[in-house]
Amino acid sequence: MNGLLVLFDLVLLAGIVGVAWRCLASTDLFRAVVLFITFGLLLALAWVRLEAPDIALAEAAIGAGITGALLLVTLERLRSIMAERRSGRPHSPPPDPTGPHALLRALHDPLPEHRTFLPALTFALVVGGLLVTALWHQPQSVGLEPVVDAHMDVSGVDHPITAVLLNFRAYDTFLELAIVLIALLGAWSLGRHDLIPARPAPGPILPGTLRLLVPVAVVTGVYVLWAGSHAPGGAFQAGAILGAAGILLVLARPRQLPMAPGGPLRLGISAGVALFLLVGLYGLAAGHGFLGYAEAWAYPLIILIEVAATLSIALTLVALFVAGRPAGDDA
Amino acid sequence: MSPPGAEWLPAGIAGLVGLSLAVAVLATAWPRQAHRIGLLGALAVTAWVLVLSAVFLNAGPDPETAATRVALGGWEAPLGLMLHLDGLSVTLLVLTAVVGLATSLYSLGYVHDRIERRQFWPLWLWLWAGLNMLFLSGDAFNLYITLEVVSLSAVALVAFTGTAAAVSGAVRYLLVNILGSLSFLMGVVLLFGEHGVLDLVLLEARTEAGPTERMAAVLMTAGLMLKAALFPLHVWLAPAHGSAPAPVSAVLSGLVVTGSFYLILRLWLGVFAPLATPAFGILVGLLGVGALVWGSLQALRAGRLKSIVAYSTVAQFGYLLVAFPLMLVDPGTWRVVVFFTVVHALAKASVFLAAGTLQHAAGHDRLADLGDVLRARPRMVFALGLAGVSLMGLPFTGGFIAKYLLLEAGLGTVLAGSVIGVLWVLAIAGGGLLAAAYVLRMVAPSFQRGRADAGETVSLWMDWVPLGLATVAALAGLAGTLTLNTLALTPGAP
Q1: SS3 B69
Q2: What is the pLDDT of residue A79?
Q3: Considering only CB atoms, which chain A residues are within 8 Å of B28?
Q4: What is the pLDDT of residues A201-254, one digit of tens each?
Q5: Residue B62 phi/psi, 5° resolution?
Q6: Does residue B215 belong to the interface with chain A, where contact is any CB pair within 8 Å?
Q7: Buried b vs exposed e over B89-116: b needs ≥16 C-beta within 10 Å?
Q8: Which residue in the set A102, A169, A293 is minimally distant from B81, CB to CB?
C-alpha cells in the first residue's frame, strides 16, 4: 500500500474520532449539529476508502445532508420556543399542547448530567473493546460476493449493489422505503404545519443561486438515478438529492408556497411503496414468487420502481423537513 | 372445491405478507377511507391467517421437516431471503390476528374523531403488517428491518394523541428502540462477518460456541431485552404504555413486546443454542425473580389504572425469564413459555381495552376516583376480572394451564437435584399471589358501597370487545393441547 494513503487513512480516522468526540462533548447545540454534519462527510470519505462508493453517496446525501438540514431546522424551532418561554409571558394562555411543538418541548429536557459521564464512557470503552476483540478474531470472509457475481447475468442490471437491493433482496429495500414512509406518517400524526409565508431575500444573490442550483440538483438527481443500474447510485441517493433541491426551495421561498393538495400528496408519498408492492404481487400471481420478476422484464420493472421510489423519497424528505402535515391532508 | 393442501402453503405465506402490506399501503394512500379499509383488511388478514394455520396443521407435517420456507423472488438462500413458517410462527400469527382483530373493532369506537382516524389507521395497519412480517421472517437482516417497521409505527402510535405526556413517553420509547435495534444490528453484522450468510437456518448450521457468537449473542439479546422491557431494562415501559391510547397500549403490551421476546426465543432455540450454559440460565432466572417482585410492587403502588396494567406486564414477563433455567433442564419447557406468552397477550390486551373504556367513561384513570364508574359498568368489571383471573392463573383459565405446566417444570428441576429450583418454584407460585393482589386492587372499588355513575357514554364496540377478548383469554386453556402440539412442529427446537 502507498505510504501516503496510509497517512491519509490515519488522519481520516483521527478526524472521525475527534469530530465525533467534539460533537458529543459540545454543550452548544448548534456547534454539535455542525460537527455532526462534518462527521457525516468524513464518514462518507471513509466509505470511499473502504471501496463502498454506494454507501459513501448515501452517507453524504442522507446522513450528512438531509439529516443535517433536519437537525438545523429542529434547532431553529427549539430556539424560537425557548425564546418565547424566556420572554416570560406568564399570564398568556398556555400554548396548544398538541402539534409538533409538544415534541420539541418534550425533547428539551435538561441536558445530561455530568455524573452520567464516567459510567457512559466506561460502558462505551468496554463494549468497544469487546467489539474490536470479536472483529479481530473474524476470518477474512468474502460474504456473498461470489454468489451475487454468479447471478449477475439474470439480475437485469449491471451493478451488483442494485442487483441485490432491487432484485435478490428486494423485500428488504421495499421495507426500507416503507420505514421512510412510516416516519413521515408519524410526523404528520403529531399536528399540522402553518401556512409558510414568503421570505423574499434582498439582493440578487439568493434568487440567482437558487435559479442555478435547483436545475443542477434535478439533473444530478436524475443522473444518479439512471446511473444506479450500472454504477454507484440509485433511488435513495437520487431521492436525497432531489429532496435537497426541494428543501432549498422551502428555505428560500421567494414566493409564498402553495398549500399542497391532500390527495395527490398522499399518492405521491406512497407511490414508491405502492408500485413496488403491485409489481411484487404481480410476480406472486405470475409464478415468479413475491417480489420476483420475469428475467426479461427485470430491467424495465426495476427502473420503473426506482423512478417511483425516487419521487416518493424526495417528496417525503421535503415533507419531513416541513414537519407538520399540510392542512390539505385533513380535507 | 377441495380445501387447499400443503402445496398452497408457500403461496399462502407470501400472500399473507402481500395482503397485510396491501392493506397498510391502501390506507396510507387513501386516508379518508382508512377505517373502512382497516376493518375489511382486519377481517381479511384474520381469515387468511386462520386458513393458513388450518392448512399448515392439516398437512400433517412431520415435526422434523415441518417448516415451510418460501424463497422471495425465486432466489433461494444464501442469495435471496426466505420466509419461514413453522409451529412457533403459526401460533404467534394466530395470536396477532386475534388481538389485532379485537383491537381494530375496539378502535372503531375509540378513535372516532375524523382527523384522528386518518392518522391512526394507517399507522396501526403498518404495525400489524410489521408484526406479521416479523413472525414470518427467516433472515437475520430482514428481522432487523421488520423490527424497525414495528418499532417505528409503535412509537408513532404512542405519540399520536399529541399530549405532552404521550410525546415524552414516545420519545423515550423511540430512543430505547433505536438503542435496542442498533445493538441487534451489530450482532447481525458480527454473525455475517463470521459466516457470510444471513439466513437463520444456514447460520444455525454454521455456528459454534466461538467469541464472535458470544459477542453477537450478548449484543442481540441485550438489544431485544431492552425492546421487550425485560427486567432490569424495563424503565421505559410504564410511561410509554401508560400514556398511549387504549388500543395502542393493548397492542404494545400484548403483541409488540411479545414480538421482541419471540425473537430472543427464536435465536436461543436456534443460532445461539450452543451457547446456553447453566450459569447463564441462573443469571437470567434471577433477573426474572427480580422482575416478578419489582413489577408487582410497582403495580401495587401505582395510582393509575393503566400504570397498574403496564407494571403488571413487567412482572408477568418475569415468568418468561424464570423459565430460562427450566428450559436448560427440560428443553421442552419452551413450548409452555410460548403458551404462557399467548395467554398473557390475550389477557393483557383485554385488560388494557377495558381500562380504556373506563378511562373514556370517567374522563381519567385515577384508581381512587374510579369507583362510581366501576360500580355502574359491571360488564367492564367482569372483563377486568375474567382477564385478571387468567393473569393470576386460577383453575380452568389459560393462565392456569400455563402456570401449572411451568410449576411442573420447576418441580422437575427440584427433583433433578437442583437447589436453586426451589427459588424458581417459589417465584412462580408467589408471582401468582402478587398478581392476585394487584388484579383485586383494580376491581375492588366496584364491591364497595357508593354511588354508581356510568359517566360518558361509550360505543357498543368499546363496551363489548374487552369482554369478548377476556373470554377468549380464559377459554385459551381449552386450546392448550392444540397450541403445544402446534408448537411441537418447530424443527430444530427440542
Answers
A1: strand
A2: 81
A3: 181, 185, 266, 269-270, 273
A4: 777 888 888 889 999 999 999 999 998 888 888 888 899 999 999 988 888 877
A5: -80, 130
A6: yes
A7: bbbbbbbbbbbbbbbbbbbbbbbeeeeb
A8: A169
* Residue B37 touches chain A, beta carbons under 8 Å: no
CA distance B75 to chain A (A): 6
Give the pairing type, strands B82-85 and B68-71.
Answer: antiparallel
ipTM reported for the complex, 2 dp: 0.93
Three-state secondary-structure class, residue A209: helix
B293 touches chain A (CB under 8 A): no
d(CA B347, CA B397): 10
Report d(CA B192, CA B389) in Å as an integer.
45
B478, three cell numbers: 381449552
> Is the pLDDT at B61 greater than 60, yes or no?
yes
DSSP B139: B
- CA-to-CA separations, B483 to B309, B401, B447, B479, in angstroms, rounded: 26, 12, 36, 6
CA distance A110 to B66: 54
Cβ-contact B228, A147 below 8 angstroms: no
Residues facing residue B82 across a β-bridge: B71
Residue with cell 402440539: B485
Contact B25 A171 (CB under 8 A): no
Q: Which residue ranges make up each domain of chain A?
A: 1-84, 157-331
What single-letter amino acid sits at B115? I
Q: Over the stretch B75-133, which tens digit does the pLDDT of each residue have?
A: 888 888 899 998 999 999 999 999 999 999 999 999 888 888 999 999 999 999 999 99
Neighbours of B437 (CB within 10 A): 14
Backbone angles phi, psi at B279, to 5 degrees: -60, -40
Residue with cell 454534519: A37
CA distances from B201 to A13, A32, A93, B281 (A): 37, 44, 60, 24
Residue spans per domain, chain B: 283-494
CA gap B335, B250 in Å, rounded: 24
Dihedral angle, C-alpha A135, A140, A141, A145, nearest 10 °: 130
* Chain A residues with CB-CB distance to B126 below 8 A: 178, 182, 185
**pLDDT exceeds cutoff 80 at A89:** no
| Neighbouring residues of B392: CB distance < 8 A, sequence distance ≥ 6 | B399, B432, B435, B436, B439
What residue has cell string 441485550? B222
